[in-house]
Amino acid sequence: MRIQALVLVLALAACGQQGAPTETPEIAREASLQVEVRRYDLMIDQVQSLTADRPGVGVPEANNPVELARQLRETVWQYNIERSRLCSRGLFTEVSCGPAYQPVWIAEPANSTPSLDELQTRAGAVGAETQRLWDVVCEDARARVTVEAERDLVCLME
Q1: For the segment 23-76, what is each residue's pLDDT rounded down to a tens digit?
Q2: Closest to 111 in 3D by CA, of 58, 71, 63, 69
Q3: How confident is the model at residue 100 (pLDDT cuts 50, 70, 90)?
Q4: pTM higher than 0.70 for the full model?
Q5: For residues 101 and 104, what is the distance between their CA atoms, to the nearest angstrom?
């Protein structure tokens, strides 16, 4: 009886291997890495969710130079993330697939206090960089709108 069971197990195992594609170590490694990276993305999502409305935490002053500097850094990070996503999809490659925008101040400490003149200079540089991407994307979006009255509403900023 044991021999028959062993023969049956071996036969089933052999059948299962004939139709299954062989996974190379490189494919397995890539799949594992993809899972790991996605896991980190989900962890960041959870951090955002769990801290969004945390009681006892004040809202920073909007006009504070430290806060303005932080907001500019975050804008640059978001800009780079969006460009990366567009590039990965093959969209607007002429403006999305270049090197990341990394002004020298992007890595400054969170408590740095640049002058208002410096913040104005930074904002102008971020604005020029962002405007290039925005113009290309909005031009494409307007071209896809078939109703002329609606075309004027695409990317309406002010």
Answers
A1: 788 888 888 899 998 898 888 889 888 888 877 766 666 678 999 999 999 999
A2: 69
A3: very high
A4: yes
A5: 10
* Sign, CA torsion 67/70/76/82: negative
What mean pLDDT, rounded, does the chain reach? 85
- 130: exposed, middle or buried (Cβ count in 10 Å: 0-12, 13-18, 19+): middle
What secondary structure does DSSP assign to 62-87, as a single string? TT-HHHHHHHHHHHHHHHHHHHHHHH
- N-to-C CA span, the chain: 83
Residue boundaries of the structural domains of the chain:
1-58, 62-158
- For the chain, what percentages of helix, strand and coil (3-state, to nearest 5) are there? 70, 0, 30
